[in-house]
Amino acid sequence: MSIQLTLIGKPGCHLCDDAREAIDRVLSDFHAANSAAQVLVEEKNILEDEDLLQKYSEEIPVILIDGKMHNYWRVDEERLMRALYAKARG
């Protein structure tokens, strides 16, 4: 099972830094309990992609799970964990 998690943000964004740290904490716990599930993390910079800039400029950081909006601005770590567990279960 592979889950694609995308963090959309930009350099110098303190909320993006906070989101990255929250994602790292969640993934550490998730991987400890779900060794069979693989989470692929990708970061995208809105300053390097005009479409992302137009779509998300007021909402960063944005987290997508398998290409679908999970949340923006602040990461609710428990909600993210529940979403990953749900994806891992299929």
- The chain-level structural class is alpha+beta
Low-confidence stretches: none
Radius of gyration from the alpha-carbon trace, in angstroms? 13 Å
| CATH evolutionary superfamily | Glutaredoxin
Number of domains: 1
In spatial order, strands of the major sheet run 2-1-3-4
- The H-and-E topology, N to C, reads as EHEHEEH
Number of strands: 4
Strand share of the residues?
A: 25-35%
Overall form: globular
CATH fold node name: Glutaredoxin
Head-to-tail CA distance between termini: 9 Å
CATH class: Alpha Beta
Helix content: 40-55%
Indicate the mean pLDDT: 96
Largest sheet, in brief, is: 4 strands, mixed
Known CATH architecture: 3-Layer(aba) Sandwich
SSE blueprint:
Elements (H helix, E strand, L loop, with lengths): L1 E8 L4 H20 L4 E8 L4 H7 L5 E4 L2 E5 L4 H13 L1
Parallel strand pairs: 1-2
Antiparallel strand pairs: 1-3, 3-4
Written account of the structure:
With 90 residues, this protein is an alpha+beta fold. The chain has a single domain (2-89), classed as Glutaredoxin, CATH 3.40.30. The chain contains 3 helices and 4 strands, in the order E-H-E-H-E-E-H. Helix 1 (14-33) crosses helix 3. It is globular. The mean pLDDT is 96.
Q: What's a concise summary of this model?
A:
It contains 3 helices and 4 strands, in the order E-H-E-H-E-E-H.
